Amino acid sequence: MSRLMGHFGHDMSYPYAILGIRCERVVMSNASIPHPLRRQLQGCSLYLVGMMASGKSSTGRLLAQRLGYRFVDTDSVVEQMAGSSIPEIFEQIGESGFRSLETQALGAISQYHSLVVATGGGAVTRPDNWGILRQGIVIWLDLNRDQLLVRLGADEVQRPLLQVADSLAVLDTLLEARRPLYNEADLQVTVGAESLSEVVEQIFNLLRSQLKNPGNLTVPQTIAG
């Protein structure tokens, strides 16, 4: 426990080291011209929330590419902090210990701007995390249950919370508990069979509406990403 929880004290140079490795500068296409919304966002970071297998990482990478932002996955940062994989962390210190590391990772990430951040599916369950997420724009990728089951069935990633006999019942319990929390997001994107590009375009359309009211945007007072 002490080895895992001893990171992220008051030395703010450490998060920079983490982001220097895990924060991806996504290579842009189309002559490297950022999307026009980048200027309107004024460096405001975008936090993607949603259930496991909802496409936060894949969508986040493309979104970052289109905006000329950097991309970071909180699970990857937690793994780097702990020196262990997510399943190993759950085995060693349980979900509560993992959530503590996740909160520390989010706090470090929030020191930087111009990021697209893919959060863990349960990040919304900790009230402290919302104070961090609200420093940017929170976007919920809302995948219906049937689509979620299809994706999880084809997913090779080990999901620690679903490594039980009745995983379907656990999934339904998670959905019931988390949906009201996801609903607190600034934007909701309903995800079905759309391509990644189509999902990103939905996000851009919602962002345009959000940014029409300047009061909806908090300009970050953070370090450059």
Question: What are the segments in which pLDDT stays under 50 over at least 5 consecutive residues?
Answer: 1-21, 26-31
Shape: globular
Q: What is the averaged pLDDT score? A: 79
N- and C-termini, Cα separation? 30 Å
Please work out how many helical segments DSSP would assign.
Answer: 10
Radius of gyration: 17 Å
Quantity of strands, as a count: 6
Strand fraction equals 5-15%
Category by helix and strand content: alpha/beta
How are the strands ordered across the major sheet?
1-3-4-2-5-6
Give the biggest sheet.
Answer: 6 strands, mixed
Helix proportion of residues, in percent? 40-55%
H and E string: HHEHEHEHHEHEHHEH
Secondary structure layout:
Elements lengths: L1 H4 L7 H10 L1 E2 L11 H5 L4 E4 L6 H12 L2 E4 H9 L3 H24 L5 E4 L8 H7 L3 E7 L1 H10 L12 H16 L4 E5 L4 H16 L14
Parallel strand pairs: 2-4, 2-5, 3-4, 5-6
Antiparallel strand pairs: 1-3
Helix pairs in contact: 4-10, 5-6
